Amino acid sequence: MARTAVSGRLTWRAATLAEARWESPTARTLVLDVPDWPGHLPGQHIDVRLTAEDGYRAQRSYSIASAWQPGGKVELTIQRLDDGEVSPYLTDVIEVGEQLELRGPVGGWFVWRPQQTAPVLLVAGGSGLVPLMAMVRARAVAGTRQPFRLIYSVRTPEDLLYGDELRRRVREDQGLDVHHVYTRKTPDGWPSPAKRIDVAALNTYGWPPDFGPDCYVCGPTTFVETAADILVALGHDPRRIRTERFGGTS
Amino acid sequence: MTSTPLDGSSTAGGGLPLDGNAMAGDLREIFAVDVTAARYVCAGCTHTDAVGTLMVWPHSPGLVARCPHCSDVVIRVVRAPGRVFLDLRGSVRLEVPLEGG
Amino acid sequence: MGIISRGFGGRRRESVPGLPPGQYLTHDFPVLSAGPTPRIPLDRWRFTVTTETGEKTSWDWKEFQALPAEDVTVDIHCVTKWSKLGTTWRGVSIETLLENVDTVAEYSMVHSFGGYTTNVPLEDLLDGKAWIAYQFDGEDLHPEHGGPARLLIPHLYFWKSAKWVNGLQLMPEDEPGFWEAAGYHMYGDPWREQRYQGD
């Protein structure tokens, strides 16, 4: 799988929207049927290209949300940005059965491979959860036992992605822990007030640096820089911290 | 989710950088291997790390990747219809891992 | 491959007559940056003209502000295909800056804080065709649009209108700047659609 995912030059191919579901009031998962998809690693992304009727084109990158299984489909979770150019089309306009062009999978650096034996710390800001969710899912598919901890920073409980699935996985996937940080509004009865991700959260709910965890941080640029700086300050090896920033531009 | 205009077609703002991962698609259209996992050596300061760690300004109007250590330009990618210009003068070398090597 | 996404309009744009080929009209002012936005305190701002013999003439912010300024209304055309009509600027013409500069150079390299460069033939900077602008739309030029001051050379693609300018180097021969060395056209005339090398 990994081999086919990284060999040969890439070109654009057609994908068909097979299914779609809402993950939150503003985020929709697109399940794409891509003939001859070579497979992908969790953390990889694809480029989507849209062409308007007058020939105008726009291109965006989206992380893949699903773990690959032979014969499976490719899932993207798109967060709608209201003044965006592409995301409102993908969340609200494109219908099941319609096609778009994509190129991928791409990216071999911000990936987790099941062969990695170290414990894993995932730090997600908002829809930065998407590629990290692919890692959580790939771990389950591979049936491996590396302990995973996910710290997921989100604005409000309504913005949570994959809420039911994460609750189920914490019960069923042995060795997976999830901690939420709410930055604007907490659920009723939450033990602490809304706050941004901080030293205490990463220290308490992450791994001690001595365990040599592989850390993956994904989210908006400022979130990623804050979290990565804290991890380094806590003593984590910068070479084991992998980051993916997204601009949230549209 | 990343949301990165890679073709300069977007009219969205360009203040904060992305990282080298954002170049993966454009580079995979040129190279037979993934270059974001390759190690670069910065021509400005000799810092070395994965291409995925570079700071990338994707809408500028080409794509500019700078060293996070000294902010010198390491890679420039300009896409034209039917061709791509790749300027690597800011990189002393690229060390590319090969699968099964 | 020709997959058309019905219902995908893209960002609001108009293809209107009178624009250079391949351009769309925009009403925003998109920001394109090749690096971090430099924040230049006015007391450290300086603009220096260097001739082909190495002779330098420079102005600090106060001296620059004392030069005769002009208000201009121009159309601008970005190589990423947007055009914006009737933009209003205030600045000092390059003609004014070069008034007492002795040169036979035919080319120039525009330099910016942050290291950006772009090349322009000297005659394209003269005769009221280019300015160092420090106001846009009646306001001080915002750093993300090139403030304190940027080159304004509206008859060429807008990457030539370098942001955060700090110098003009006069040269006997043409040399490529930051984008020209990486594949963009040496001259960049939007009416001849000179986007990339060889266009």
The low-confidence runs of chain A, each spanning 5 or more residues with pLDDT under 50, are: 1-6
Beta-strand content of chain A: 25-35%
- Biggest sheet architecture of chain C: 6 strands, mixed
Question: How far from one another are the termini of chain A?
Answer: 32 Å
Query: For this structure, what is the CATH homologous superfamily of the largest domain in chain A?
Result: Nucleotide-binding domain of ferredoxin-NADP reductase (FNR) module
- How many distinct domains of chain A? 2
User: What structural category characterises the helix and strand content of chain C?
Assistant: mainly beta
For the record, give the distance between the C-alpha atoms at the N and C termini of chain C, rounded to a whole number.
24 Å
Which pair of chains forms the biggest interface, and how many residues does each contribute?
Answer: A-B, 51 and 37 residues
Give the quaternary arrangement of the chains.
heterotrimer
CATH class of the largest domain in chain A: Alpha Beta
Widest sheet, order of strands of chain A: 4-3-6-1-2-5
H/E order of the elements of chain C?
EEEHEEHEEHEEEE
- Please identify, by name, the CATH architecture of one domain in chain C: Alpha-Beta Complex
CATH-assigned fold name of the largest domain in chain A: Rossmann fold
Count of helix runs of chain C: 3
Largest sheet of chain A, in brief, is: 6 strands, antiparallel
Radius of gyration of chain C: 17 Å
Shape of chain C: globular
Tell me, what's the shape of chain A?
Answer: globular
CATH C-level class of one domain in chain C is: Alpha Beta
Structure description:
The complex is a heterotrimer of chains A (250), B (101) and C (199). Chain A has six helices and eleven strands. Chain A has helices at residues 2-6, 87-93, 129-142, 163-172, 199-205, 221-233; strands at 13-24, 27-33, 45-51, 57-63, 74-79, 99-106, 120-125, 148-154, 176-182, 214-220, 241-246. In chain A, helix 6 (221-233) links the parallel strand 10 (214-220) and strand 11. Chain A is globular and about 55 Å long. Chain B contains one helix and eight strands; from the N terminus they run βαβββββββ. Chain B is mainly β and 101 residues long. Chain C is mainly β. Chain C has a domain at 44-70 and 90-192: Oxidoreductase, molybdopterin-binding domain (Sulfite Oxidase, Chain A, domain 2, Alpha-Beta Complex). In chain C, the strands form two sheets. In chain C, strands 1, 4, 5, 8, 9 and 10 form a six-stranded mixed sheet that branches. The longest helix of chain C is centred in the first third of the chain and has 5 residues, at 61-65. The chains are: A alpha/beta (250), B mainly beta (101), C mainly beta (199). Chains in contact: A-B, A-C, B-C. Chain A: Residues 10-112 form the FAD-binding FR-type domain. Chain A: InterPro entries: Cbr1-like_FAD-bd_dom, FAD-bd_FR_type, Flavoprot_Pyr_Nucl_cyt_Rdtase, FNR_nucleotide-bd, MRET, OxRdtase_FAD/NAD-bd, Riboflavin_synthase-like_b-brl.
